[in-house]
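Fold it.
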Amino acid sequence: MPDPRFFEDLGPVRLGELATLTGAVLVDPGQGERRVDRVAVLAQAGPETISFLADRRYAAQLAEARPGACFLPPGLEALAPEGCAVLTTANPQAAYALAAQRLHRPRPAGTQAIAADAALESGVVLAPGVVVGPAAQIGRGTRIGANTVIGPGVAIGRDCDIAPNVTIGFALIGDRVKILSGARIGEPGFGATAGPKGLIDIPQLGRVIIQDGVSIGANTTIDRGAFDDTAIGENTKIDNLVQIAHNVRVGRNCVMAAHTGISGSVAIGDGAQFGGRAGVADHVTIGAGARVGAAAGVMKDIPAGETWGGMPARPIRHWLKETAWLARMAHRRAGGEA
């Protein structure tokens, strides 16, 4: 369910209207006047929500969730549980995205530099040009640099240090967090799908959760979640120019050097370390205490405590042996040709 601190609910909406909007077919036309309040993925669905299923592998989740309505591909109507209204469409995710746009929107930023209902504890320091949105909260002793923008509903803890020209939205931030200049926290993650008239953006309805003691480098970007939250664990240290995509979960005491890129829905265990320019593909799990070498390209899960390098990344000893063998072969060929 989208956090009401950050998103306005525009429902309820009739299923007949959603069918027209998305081009889906309501299997039981008699359900056209039935209403839903919000969208939700299967893990969060309930009787007032509309969800989607694009792959029969998740049929058990659909049966357990029992949403009020669901977008399904033609031929999978029988997977819907009793009481769930079915709307069939070739691209359920696109229909879900259009429904999300109809049912939810980000809260407006307001027109005042410091919103009247913003809550600032004692000792907060705001440099010139700072904008604080409606219902935002800033804890005691926190310092906000010049021209930084704090969005509606954002909560920032105590004794934080936010540098100039930072933007923070859709985020809940703990105590003693340091964010350097130019960082962008809570922007929408990258997600698009084919709609009836071309590509459409998938609304990003999650948040960013940053726990106590985290440091975030200059010009680093941390996207808010698409469905779930993006979360950064306690005391993690992130260098400059790092990209962390939507739905990523980073554990405690992790370290990421500059230019690291983490794709969507990656799970990273406590104490993991990433060298500069390391990249991780989506939906990969990095075990606790794992180490990823500089410029490595991680395409599959890394077990806890292991060190991997290379492209595609593999255990460091294998990569070093392969690199040494290639160097010897190249040297022999060069010598033979001479």
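The chain has a mean pLDDT of 95.
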